[in-house]
Amino acid sequence: MLEVRNISKSFYRKIALDDVSLSVNKGEIYGLLGPNGAGKTTLIRIVNRIIEPDKGSVFIDGDILSQKHLANIGYLPEERGLYRTMTVEDQAIFLGQLRGLSKRDIQTTLNYWLDKFEIQAWRKKRIEELSKGMAQKVQFIYTVLHNPSLLILDEPFSGFDPLNVELIKQELIEMKAKGKTIILSSHNMKSVEEMCDRVALINSSKKIAENSITALQDERKSGLYAIKFKGNMLGFVNALWTGFEIVDKEVLSDDRFIVRVSMRGDNKFDDLLRALVGQVNMEAAWEVTPTMQEVFIDLVSNNNKEIA
User: What's domain 2-218's superfamily in CATH?
Assistant: First the structure.
């Protein structure tokens, strides 16, 4: 649905984006990741035509990005910007009319969202009367008011408590199920891992990775396996004998542990399980996969070493 081709952008000789290309498929949640100052927000602003690139092009459904496409884009910026003295309802009408909606359609859609979030009581409140989290929930509603086919969300979970993070996540998952395309820029790696189909990682103005979550994690597996069991630690160690090496352990209680082991020689996961059957009461066993937090740190750290 969205293709970014060879985008470059500089500000006063400082390179913000350096020949960045990426593609976002229709109906997926696509993570745009990177450290602060990497260039993510600059790229998002280019896609929204807030600023123009020095070089390169953006395409929507195969057509070069133009003003007409903006009617189908919903943008939630990291720097929240609402008129503090306007009421929730008046702000919705103002922003909805800028998107070409009629007042009647705005009221209908606003009612739907206020009911869904159980916040009808906020309708006549001024923005300045709302807490930060309440204001951000309202701004999310404004972002989707015109039913856009492409959502671009810059740090959408910032300032939310865990309950509201989960609420917004579920809304985004529902939108994806309805065919919406979502670009999610976030430092919340847990949410990225749970929601995103694919991600791109930008560091020091360049794209350094683009792939599915699973592929990025699989590339960084270290051959470790974890066993959660109840029993005697000495019995566990004796059962392993020389075929496996204990890397670390986590004590859950006097007789419950999680132990991470690596294989020696040609031993496989099946061999590990056979060695332990009857020796300890196994509760779970799995291959250790790096989290997206660990993937992020690994990619950025290695890239920084290359740059240095």
Answer: P-loop containing nucleotide triphosphate hydrolases (3.40.50.300)
